Prior knowledge:
There is one protein chain. α11 (218-229) crosses α12. The protein has 2 domains: 6-56 and 162-477, Metal-dependent hydrolases (TIM Barrel); 57-159, uronate isomerase, domain 2, chain A (Orthogonal Bundle), CATH 1.10.2020. It starts with 20 loop residues before the first helix and ends with a helix. It is α/β, with parallel strands linked by helices. The chain is 49% helix and 8% strand. The protein has helices at 21-34, 49-52, 61-66, 70-78, 103-112, 121-134, 145-156, 163-170, 186-193, 207-210, 218-229, 236-252, 272-283, 289-310, 326-332, 346-349, 351-357, 373-383, 401-415, 433-453, 459-477, and strands spanning 39-41, 172-176, 179-180, 200-201, 204-205, 257-262, 313-318, 320-321, 340-341, 365-367, 389-391. The radius of gyration is 23 Å and the shape is globular. The longest helix is centred in the middle third of the chain and has 22 residues, at 289-310. The chain contains 21 helices and 11 strands.
Amino acid sequence: MKPSLRNYMPERADRYFSGSSEQRRAARALFESVADLPLICPHGHVDPQLFAEAAYHFESPAEFFLIPDHYVFRMLYSQGVRLEAQGVSVNEGEDASEVETDHRRIWQTFAENYHLFQGTPTGLWLRDELHDLFGITEKLTPSNAQTVYDRIAERLAAPDFTPRKLYEQFGVEALTTTDAATDTLEHHRAIQASDWDGRIFPTFRPDKVVNDLDQPDWQEQIELLRAVSGMDIGGYGGYIAALEGRRAFFKEMGATATDHAAETPYTEVLSPAEADAIFQRGLAGQASADDARRFTGHMLVEMARMSSEDGLVMQLHPGSIRNHNRAVFSRFGADKGADIPHALDFTRNLKPLLDQFGSHPSLRLILFTLDESTSARELAPLAGHYPILRIGPPWWFYDSINGMRNFFAQVMETAGIYNTVGFNDDTRAFASIPSRHELWRRIACDWLAGLLLEGQIDDEDAYAMAHALAYGLAKEAYGL
C-alpha cells in the first residue's frame, strides 16, 4: 500500500506558496492584504456579447469551460483527441458532419482526459473554478463526469448565474475586450445603452489591416476598413486617415489601449512614397513577403506616432508563428492552439521606433514576449532606460507558476516593479479570470515574502509592492 502524502500538502490557504514555514506565513499575510482587491482586466479576449444581454446564460458546462479555451483543446489534440470530438467548429465549406454537437459527450471526452492537465496551469485554473464557482471538491473522473455535469448545468441555469452577475461576483472593476479595427462594436454599444454599470471597454487591434499584406485576404480586410470608415482608401494617405478615424471611434467607446501582434518586433521608418508604393502593391495583390515585413514594421512606428497623439496605450505581442499547423488552419481556421513561439531580438528591431519616440512624454508602449531569454537580456534593460517602455506580465505559455517565478527573477532587479504593469489575464475563458488573478497574486506575494526574509525590503515596502502588483500597476498603466 502506498503511503499517504496528505501530510505534505499545504493548506488550501497556502497553496502555490514555496519555501519555509516562515516564508509561507509572510506570503499569506501579504496575500490576505490584496486577496479582495478588485480585478483590473486590461487585456483579454472575452466575447463582449456575453455582457450585451442582461439575461444571457451559458448553454452548458462544455460551453462554459471547454469550447472557448484553446488551452484545453490544444492539450487534448496533442494526445490524439480530434478537435471535432471537442466540438470545435470547422471553416465554412468544410464537412461538419463529424463535429460533435452533444455537449455531454464533449464533457465526457474531457473527463476521460482530465489527467492530461496534471501539473499544468490549466489544471490549476480548472480545479479552482470547479471548487470556487460550483463547490465541487472531488476530482473529475470518467465515472463521475455526468454527475458533475448535472451539478454544473443546474447552477448555470440559475437566474443569478449570468455573465453580468459573475462580473460583479468576481469583483471585476474593469474588463477590456480585443476588437478588430473594422469592428462596429455593436455589443459594446448595447452594453453602454443598458442600465448596467459594468465597465467593459474595447481595445483597438488593427492586425488584419496592417499585417500580412502579401496574403490573399488582405484586400478584403481593406475593403471592410473602407466600408466601416466611410473613407476613400485608394492610397496610403487615405489608409492612414481611416485608421486614425477608427482609433478615434474606439476611444469614444471607452478604449484606452491598442494591441498589436507581429511575428517579430521589427520596426522600420519608410518615407510616404515608399509606404504608398508597398501599399499599392498590396492592393494589387503583388506584394512580396519582404514588402509585408517592411510595411508591418513601418506601421508599428506609425501606431506609436498615433498613440503619442491620441493617448491610447500601445501593446506589442510579438514572437508567435501563427497557425503553424497547416492542416488545422485549413479545416478549423485561426486560434486553434497551433501558434508556436520563436526566438526574438528586441534591442535591434525596436531601435528605429525608439529613436523617434523612446522619450516621448505622451506615449506608453507595453512589451510582451514569448522568448523568455529576452526578459533579462533585453526587455528589463530597455524598460529600465526608455521612459515610454513597460514590460507586460508573463504571457500565454508562461502564464504559469514557473513563468511568473522566472519573470520576477529575471526582470525585477533591472527594471524594478514600476516599469512593469501588474497582471492581465489574456483569456477567452471568462470563468478562469479570478483563478488567474489569484495565482498571480499568490506568486507575487510569495516572491515578496522571500525578499522580506532576506532583508531586501521591509514590511512597508512589501505591502506597498503587493498592492501595486495586484492592482495599482495595471490600473495606472492602462488608465482604467
